[in-house]
Amino acid sequence: MTDSSAPQTDAAAPSSPLIVVGIRPDTVRRDPELPGAARPEPTEAHPALAWAVERARATAADLKLVAVVDPKAEGLDALAIAPLEALAIPLRATGLAVTVEVIDDRHVDRALPDAATDAALLVIGTDHVPGSRRERGHLSRHLVSHAHCSVAVVPSLDEAQRREGVVVGVDGSDVSHRALAFGADEAARLRETLTIVSTWMPVPVSLDVNMTYDPTPYDLQAPTEAFAQTAVDEAHTRHPGLDVRTLVAEGDAAIAITDASTSARLTVVGTHGRSGLARLLLGSTSTAVLENTTAVTVAVR
Predict the structure, then answer these.
(1) What are the backbone angles phi and psi of residue 295, rounded to the nearest 5°?
(2) Terminal CA-to-CA distance of the chain, rounded, Å?
(3) What DSSP element (H or E) covers 39?
């Protein structure tokens, strides 16, 4: 393992929140005139890093850039540190506290989350390549399922498209309340409208003990709207005056959240713990949203 750090601060000073950013070393251009070195690149060339930098500046957080390399590739860890430093040096010059780390491990889906054990947020790019037959969001989904903290998945987006608003999906679970809190905080920080999405599915009603069912499904629109209003009240408790809207509809939650996020600045969903089936299955709504990301998406733990 190779580690490079920014100058240490006073040990007595309160620690800043940490944002860990997963970086693929092969995405940084190397300098052909300097073996093992890399050309400094604009942060904008790496969407996940650019997003993390903006958030670090806004929240007074420290950054850690992490690359995971296969230990069978002899000497690759030494080569990987140069691209990370090429990204870190100009950021340090702007006053950000940035460290870099290269981890020897074949299993990036475990090693990267473990590097973010004490982080407030893990930020990664999407592994989807347009035109590729590979399952979309495969690595992103596995990283989220193994993560110890919340994870932001940052896709490559059309910079010309105007994006506004924060979208959060709620379902009444404990993690849903945490997702709502995160979404409300971000909407307030970004001065954006918060859209709360809640959906319902038709429920057939039993008519007698023989378990025959009414062919007309029970309509849950009204109670779901009432539930969504409690979420609005919860958001307003955290941020009075926040512009909050609701989207309540019959149908699949993931589809509703994804459709509402087409031009959103941020999407927020909840995800369950790292043990048992919760880790293996992640959650159908979170999984579907991550696999069809149309905006920067944060999976809140």
Answers:
(1) -155, 170
(2) 28
(3) none
Task: Give yes or no for residue 77 having a pLDDT over 70.
Answer: no
Structural domain boundaries enclosing 293? 166-300
Least Cα distance to 252 among 276, 291, 285 occurs for 285
Of 142, 148, 232, nearest to 196 (Cα)? Answer: 232
Query: Of 154, 162, 165, whose CA–CA distance to 247 is shortest?
Result: 165
Q: How many CA atoms lie within 13 A of 7 on its CB side?
A: 6
Q: Do 200 and 220 contact (CB within 8 A), yes or no?
A: yes
Residues 206 and 173 in one domain: yes
Instruction: Please list the alpha-helical segments (H only) found in 60-107.
Output: 76-93
119, 154, 189 - which closes a domain? 154
- Weakest-pLDDT range from 31-40, 189-198, 199-208: 31-40
Query: Residue 21, SS3?
Result: strand
The string of DSSP letters for 220-272 reads -HHHHHHHHHHHHHHHHHHSTT--EEEEEEES-HHHHHHHHTTT-SEEEEE--
Q: What is the pTM of this model?
A: 0.84
